[in-house]
Every structure is written in structure tokens, then in C-alpha cells.
């Protein structure tokens, strides 16, 4: 069988060498991380939640807890993971620190293959609000409590380990050191050295190479081509920058305020810089990296002012304000203290209502004194014809407003967000989950 390639990122993932993994879902279909399935409500829901239920289909190779952690950690802080098998299917419950991180992870990993052509991720929001982890081992882990006991290795796990040729050479002295506060970067580097020598020794043995393939490939190694002289182990640190680069903008129409409002739908924008010598490009700094990733996910390749804008992570970690005397022409602005940030409150409900641009806008904070006709008139005065309008049946403060197309809706959101409706009421505009 060909060596599996990790597809879920542009960079190879490191696979902590799991002494207990086997090439199939565990036989004990009732076990859930040293507990029982009946102790866990593994039902799912549509509403975004910080706990994700992940099913791994077509599991031809083992997917360890460490691999799961590294996959989900790209999108935010992982608090706890529990793995188990139910109905002969390997599953995992992953708890992120916030619902928006879980939403981002679901969007980024859903239907992706962990390895080439197999181990497909199916992800849903769990009904659980938190996970109760008893042990830190290869089946479950609480990353907020590294002092939990490891529990004991089952007979089945011990036998499985002993039947895989050469696997013992890949097991760290303490296979659970990652759970007990070891630095992930140094743990990774030291284990790579052990893997290199073990892999090179096994390379000439095709049986060993096939057996070790799923353990080596997340490092970017191909067992068929290994030798002591040509090992080239690559590992790139995950991009954790809160800054994105937006390109292919319409330089005659785009302003810093417009960028702040549009990109502010997906996070709290701290600074915006339109590049002085290349004004169709801009740098946007968010308050945290997860928000930058949300913007990238939802706004890359979106049509705005007749152009497909491109959004990518920046090599910078912050946007510098111009020094005194440096030409800038007002193209750099600081919004750190803006009152228009949508996510200032920890755990803001706005995180649960983040959607890609669409033709239908979600309006909120509407006073009871403002009618449908009045709102339509306001949009018309701003230059936007309302195609359809609908108040929420049980809440007059919210409504759906349909524009002609997505591009028009983007412009309308920028123009109408924070529009004054009454003395102490300003309109809040975001993209809707669905149409009218």
C-alpha cells in the first residue's frame, strides 16, 4: 500500500508515535476513553458549539490523539480530546476554547482526508457543553490539567504494539510526555531524531516500511525513498499571525473605513494599512489570529467592486503605524479603540452568527418605532434597492433584507452598518445564514 500523505494542510503534520494505535478502529465498541458511551451524550446539533463530534471514515491507518490535536489546534486553543469507537467507527470529541474556534475548525477540516485517500473527517457540533476527562493517555487528554493519571495500557493495546515490526524503536522513553507539560516543539525535534535513525534502518525492509508508513508520513517521509543520506524532514510552525494581506482591491474605491467595516464582520480589526506604493493591497490586523483565519476563510476570492479579492496570511505579526514625517496620506489607521467592534465581550453571541457574504443581510437593533417602509426608504436613499424584506416573527428588533446580489449586499453592509435609526439606536448589519 502506498505511503499515506497528509492533505489537510500545506505543511506536513507530525505524528507522535502512538504505541497503542492499530490499523483499524478498536474492537471494544463500548469504550470511551476509559469510560462508557452511555456516559457521553454524543448527539449533535446545528447550533455552533465549542465541542465537536468527529467521525473518521475509511480509516485505513490509525489517527492518533496527537494528530487530532495538531489538526484542530490550527484553528484555536484545544482544551480536551476524547477518542472512542462506536458502531465499529472511530470517533473523537474535541473541545475548543471558544465556539468560534470550533466553527472555524469545522469549516476548515470538514470532509478533509487526514491521509491520502483515507481517514476522512466528518464533523458536527456536539450537544455537550464540556468534556470530562479522567486520564491523560493515548485515548483522552485534558490539556488544561497535565497532572491527570495516565491509567493503564490494556492487554489489547499492548499486544497491538508488539505486533507492529520496528514500532518499538519509535516509541519515546515516555510516550505520554506531551501530556505532562513537555514543550511540543522540543518533543517534536527530539522524536524526529529517533524517527530518522529508525526509518533509515527499516528502509531496506519493505515489510517494515509498509508497517511504519502511517507513523512516518505525517513527518513528510516516504519510506520507499528513505536513506541515511537523503532524509529531509520538514516541519513548518503553524501560521499564528493576526495579520492578513488583502490584494486585488479597487484602489480608487476602497478606503480604510470600508475595509474596517467589511473585515470587522469576522473579528475586531485593530489596524488597517493600505500600502502606499501599491494601493490595491492592504494589511489588516485583528485582535487574535483566529479572527484573521475567519476572514481568510470567508472573504478570499469574494467579488467586490468587480474584482475577486484575495486574502492570505501575512508574514507580519502586527501593522506598524507610520513614523513621524513618513509619507502615508492617511492610508494607515488605528481602530483599537473603536466602539464598532463586534466581539469585545468574551464569549460574544456574535461569534455564533458569522457567515460568508450573501445577498441577504441580517439587520438588528431596530427600534419598534421603525417600520419596514422606513428601513426600505433608508436603503433606497443610500442607493440600494431592497428586493425582499422580512421582520423576524417573534422579534421586531431583527429583520432580513435581500439585495440584488452578493456584491451589492457587501456595499450595503459597509454603508448601512451603524446607520442611525433613532437617538440611541444604530443599525447593526451582518450577513444572513439563509435567504428570505
Blueprint of the fold:
Layout: E1 31-32, E2 35-36, E3 44-45, E4 51-57, H1 65-73, E5 78-86, E6 89-96, H2 99-109, E7 113-115, E8 118-126, E9 140-142, H3 155-162, H4 184-202, H5 206-216, E10 243-247, H6 256-263, E11 269-274, E12 282-286, H7 289-299, E13 303-304, E14 307-308, E15 310-313, E16 332-334, E17 360-364, H8 372-381, E18 388-392, E19 395-402, H9 406-416, E20 420-422, E21 425-426, E22 428-431
Antiparallel strand pairs: 1-2, 3-8, 4-6, 4-8, 5-6, 5-9, 7-8, 10-12, 10-15, 11-12, 11-16, 13-14, 17-19, 17-22, 18-19, 20-21
Helix pairs in contact: 2-7
Explain what this protein looks like in three dimensions.
The protein is an alpha+beta fold. It folds into 3 domains: 31-225, RRM (RNA recognition motif) domain (Alpha-Beta Plaits, 2-Layer Sandwich); 239-346, RRM (RNA recognition motif) domain (Alpha-Beta Plaits, 2-Layer Sandwich); 355-436, Alpha-Beta Plaits (2-Layer Sandwich), CATH 3.30.70. The chain has 9 helices and 22 strands. The strands form 6 sheets. Strands 3, 4, 5, 6, 7, 8 and 9 form a 7-stranded antiparallel beta sheet that branches. The chain has a 5-stranded antiparallel beta sheet with strand order 15-10-12-11-16, covered by helices on one side. A hairpin with a 2-residue loop joins strand 7 and strand 8. The relative contact order is 0.10.
Termini gap: 50 Å
Helix content: 10-25%
Work out the number of β strands. 22
- Class based on secondary structure composition and strand pairing: alpha+beta
Mean pLDDT: 75
Oligomer: single chain
Total number of helices = 9
Write down the domain tally. Answer: 3
What is the general shape? globular
Amino acid at each position: 500500500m502506498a505511503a499515506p500523505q497528509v492533505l489537510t494542510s500545506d505543511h506536513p503534520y507530525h505524528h507522535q508515535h502512538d504505541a497503542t494505535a492499530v490499523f483499524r478502529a478498536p474492537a471494544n465498541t463500548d469504550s470511551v476513553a476509559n469510560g462508557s458511551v452511555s456516559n457521553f451524550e454524543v448527539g449533535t446539533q446545528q447550533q455552533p458549539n465549542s465541542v465537536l463530534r468527529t467521525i473518521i471514515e475509511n480509516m485505513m491507518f490509525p489517527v492518533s490523539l496527537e494528530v487530532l490535536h495538531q489538526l484542530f489546534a490550527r484553528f484555536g486553543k484545544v482544551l480536551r480530546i476524547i477518542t472512542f469507537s462506536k458502531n465499529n467507527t472511530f470517533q473523537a470529541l474535541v473541545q475548543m476554547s471558544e465556539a468560534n474556534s470550533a466553527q472555524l475548525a469545522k469549516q476548515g477540516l470538514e470532509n478533509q482526508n487526514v491521509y491520502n485517500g483515507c481517514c476522512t473527517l466528518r464533523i458536527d457540533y456536539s450537544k455537550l457543553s464540556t468534556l470530562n476527562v479522567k486520564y491523560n493517555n493515548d485515548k483522552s487528554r485534558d490539556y488544561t490539567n497535565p497532572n491527570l493519571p495516565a491509567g493503564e495500557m490494556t492487554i489489547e493495546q499492548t499486544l497491538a504494539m508488539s505486533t507492529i515490526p520496528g514500532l518499538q524503536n519509535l516509541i519515546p522513553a515516555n510516550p505520554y510526555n506531551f501530556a505532562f507539560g513537555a514543550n511540543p516543539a522540543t518533543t517534536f525535534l527530539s522524536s524526529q531524531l529517533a524517527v530518522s535513525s529508525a526509518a533509515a534502518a527499516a528502509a531496506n525492509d519493505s515489510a517494515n516500511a509498509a508497517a511504519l508508513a502511517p507513523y512516518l508520513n505525517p513527518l513528510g517521509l516516504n519510506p520507499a525513498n528513505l536513506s541515511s543520506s537523503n532524509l529531509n524532514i520538514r516541519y513548518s510552525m503553524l501560521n499564528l499571525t493576526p495579520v492578513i494581506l488583502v490584494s486585488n482591491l479597487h484602489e480608487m474605491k476602497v478606503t480604510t473605513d470600508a475595509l474596517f467595516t467589511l473585515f470587522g464582520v469576522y473579528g475586531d480589526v485593530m489596524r488597517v494599512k493600505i500600502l502606499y506604493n501599491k494601493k490595491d493591497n492592504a494589511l489588516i490586523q485583528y485582535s487574535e489570529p483566529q479572527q484573521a483565519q475567519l476572514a481568510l476563510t470567508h472573504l478570499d476570492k469574494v467579488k467586490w467592486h468587480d474584482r475577486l479579492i484575495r486574502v492570505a496570511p501575512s508574514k507580519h505579526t502586527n501593522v506598524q503605524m507610520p513614523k513621524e514625517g513618513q509619507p502615508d496620506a492617511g492610508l494607515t489607521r488605528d481602530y483599537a479603540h473603536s466602539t464598532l467592534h463586534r466581539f469585545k465581550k468574551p464569549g460574544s453571541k456574535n461569534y455564533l452568527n458569522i457567515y460568508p457574504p450573501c445577498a441577504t443581510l441580517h439587520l438588528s437593533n431596530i427600534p419598534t418605532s421603525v417600520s419596514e417602509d422606513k428601513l426600505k426608504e433608508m436603503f433606497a436613499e443610500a442607493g440600494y434597492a431592497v428586493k425582499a424584506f422580512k421582520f423576524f416573527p417573534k422579534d421586531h428588533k431583527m429583520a432580513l433584507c435581500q439585495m440584488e446580489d452578493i456584491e451589492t449586499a457587501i456595499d450595503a453592509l459597509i454603508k448601512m452598518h451603524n446607520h442611525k435609526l433613532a437617538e440611541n439606536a444604530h443599525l447593526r448589519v451582518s450577513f444572513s445564514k439563509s435567504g428570505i
